[in-house]
Specification:
Number of domains: 2
Number of strands: 10
Number of helices: 9
CATH superfamily of the largest domain: Chloramphenicol acetyltransferase-like domain
Helix content: 40-55%
Oligomer: single chain
Distance between the termini: 53 Å
CATH class of the largest domain: Alpha Beta
Length: about 325
């Protein structure tokens, strides 16, 4: 409330144009830019085969897309901003939302996952996180995932109550009144929403951005196809490709920044070996360093207190 939110910090030192844009385009649907770029997947296929032989790990296109998106969000922080109530916020975390079908049938249940990352993870760490979240949403453990559980509660409400609750949530979201716990489970309050349409054999599409929540980017990967391509010498060959399509909220940064950011994403997509190693932690300075040192001291004190409690319990048990 009053320019404060649980999921973001307000950006105040903005150029005049950047500050004015949200007032001219108050809704996210007003400010959608659409971008398309074909992706040559030859190197991805080669990478997947080589890693399977060398390590026994089978990476999927979805996991590689997630890795490329995370690297962009971490290395290009303005893409992790969002607009609410005509104000620009820097998100406090990096997250990905993705919808997954449990079974590839017309009646197969669709679930939505929301996962949190630092943006520095290696592909292996991303794969492990993704597989763990999928496992939580198995039939036997359907209620374990917070997002699925929250959606289930809303779905059981009568129509009038469902509408009323969502109206309250929209009002609270607009004015920064939603608690962090609620924002944590909402898939619409996320850095980026992705979809891999290859599994349902559908061409890529431009997905809309939700006015509810604060998702700034939607990335869609389409089905594979073969197309003629020309090199710099004008020689034509056939390449295996898929289309990448992005829907972007243009209010968070200018076109040059977005263009350079998408080049970072596409570079990592085309060269997934760049994501095999995790990125180093940034060197902290000034207030950030003091804050971390203070946090580490508190954690150390908590650890000592916990150790003393365990010692006392052990003595009593004897």
């Amino acid at each position: 409330m009053f320019g404060r939110r649980a999921d973001g910090v307000r950006v105040k030192d903005l150029p005049i144009i950047d500050k004015a844009m949200p007032y001219f385009m108050p809704e996210r649907s007003d400010a959608c830019n659409l971008y398309e770029e074909p992706l040559n997947v030859g190197n991805i296929d080669k990478f997947v085969i080589e890693q399977k032989k060398a390590t026994g790990i089978h990476y999927t296109y979805t996991e590689i897309l997630m890795g490329a998106c995370l690297r962009m969000l971490y290395q290009r922080p303005k893409t992790n901003r969002f607009i609410h109530n005509c104000m620009v916020f820097q998100r406090k975390y990096i997250s990905i939302s993705i919808s997954v079908k449990k079974k590839l049938t017309d009646d197969g249940e669709e679930i939505t996952l929301k996962m949190y990352f630092t943006g520095r993870e290696s592909l292996k760490e991303i794969k492990e996180k993704f597989e763990a979240e999928l496992a939580k949403n198995s039939i036997a453990a359907e209620k374990d995932h917070k997002t699925t559980r929250f959606a289930g509660v809303l779905a059981k409400m009568p129509n009038w109550l469902y509408k009323f609750v969502l109206a309250v949530l929209r009002f609270g979201d607009k004015h920064g009144m939603l608690p962090r716990k609620l924002l944590d489970v909402s898939p619409f309050h996320t850095s980026i929403f992705i979809t891999d349409l290859r599994s349902i054999k559908l061409n890529s599409l431009y997905h809309h951005l939700y006015n509810f929540g604060n998702t700034t980017i939607f990335a869609a990967m389409g089905k594979l196809y073969y197309a003629p391509v020309a090199n710099r010498s004008g020689e034509i060959s056939v390449a295996k490709q898929c289309d990448m399509r992005f829907t972007l909220d243009e209010r968070v940064c200018d076109g040059l920044y977005y263009g350079n950011s998408l080049r970072v994403l596409m570079k990592n997509l085309e060269n997934p070996e760049l994501m095999l190693e995790s990125l180093p932690e940034p060197e902290l300075e000034g207030k950030a360093l003091k804050k971390k040192q203070k946090h580490d001291k508190k954690q150390a004190k908590k650890g000592k207190k916990q150790a003393k409690r365990e010692e006392k319990k052990a003595k009593k048990n004897k």
